[in-house]
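Milestone M4 deliverable, item 7.
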Amino acid sequence: MSYFPFFMEIKDKECLVVGGGMVALRKIEKLQPFGVKITVVSPAFCSEIEGMADILRIQRKFHPADIEGKLFLIGATDDEAVNQEIADLCRERNIPVNIVDDPKNCTFFFPALVKKGEFVAGFSTGGGSPLAAQYIRKQVEDAVPEGFDRVVEVLASVREQVKAEISDIRKRETIFKELFALALEKEGKLTETEINAMIRKEGE
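Output delivered:
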């Protein structure tokens, strides 16, 4: 069964990672660029997790109460019974959960990610072959043009201006297409003068 790729805002939301080893570390590293508040519960932590800033470490065994108030959970322990308990508790409460290397107990999967500023692409095989997803991720990452994060920033910054100044929807579409082409050509390094000139030209 394939999974629908929802994109959701997780900045400043609460996430729980159960487990303090290298597997947990890889999940934490994927999440940190998105601004989520991460709590890690484990009897012990690897040195990399110990040295991480901006996460809350709780050094003890997992308690069922730990899941309260969390948007989603990640089970990354080497104890199958604990992982199963986490999965069961989350299903009972309809909390999304990812149990590492156990697809049957996951209600969501971590995609292979390409992130360039606000541009994010995710690839998943539904847990069937992470290597296949990573292969496609690498192809896409290599294909993303230089400065693409700046291109996205430019287009985002002018959206409201274009909507306010240009009432004709077809003209708006033309402006966005031309701005995108020029921003791509210049690796996102457009001046305010260039942007305003293009808007004025199409608005006439």
